[in-house]
Amino acid sequence: MQWHKPAKKAGLGYFSKVLVAKTMNYLTDEQVKQMTEEYCNHHLRDITHMLRSAHTFLSFMDGLRSWLDSSGHHFRIDSSDGTDTYVKQFDLGRKFSLYFKTQMKLVFEHFNVQNAEAEMTDNTAILRINV
Q: What CA–CA distance (Å, rounded) separates 34 from 4?
């Protein structure tokens, strides 16, 4: 279990997708961004260390891929012309897409990743990373 055991040690658990989506819909966009910033500032390093042995962008992305594999969310990863594109269809609504987009922008900043961008639609998040 590449995801479940380390995730449990990192304090991550399971919640109903419907509950998460409905709860997030009560928040304003600014509240979602603020919550995401506080979460990343206080927990990103700890979670990355618990999921993988190193605190690097590559180890974070490896943990993200493991989470995607075990999460049941629809996703695809494409590599073309020096760009890795991650497309994740959460189907949890616009607020969750905003949360994930904001989190990934903070991850890019935290790890000082240049030439990366995060976009979103109402149900999908898209990451483009120049490698």
A: 28
Domain ranges of the chain: 4-130
Residues forming a β-bridge with 87: 76, 126
Tokens of 70: 């075990």
Q: What is d(CA 127, CA 83) in angstroms, rounded to the nearest whole number?
A: 10
Shortest CA distance to 118 belongs to which of 53, 49, 61, 45? Answer: 61
Q: In what order do the strands lie in the sheet with 124-130?
A: 74-80, 83-89, 124-130, 116-120
63 is written with which tokens? 């943990």
Q: What is the DSSP letter of 80?
A: E
Range ranked top by mean pLDDT from 21-35, 45-59, 61-75: 21-35
Q: How confident is the model at residue 83 (pLDDT cuts 50, 70, 90)?
A: very high
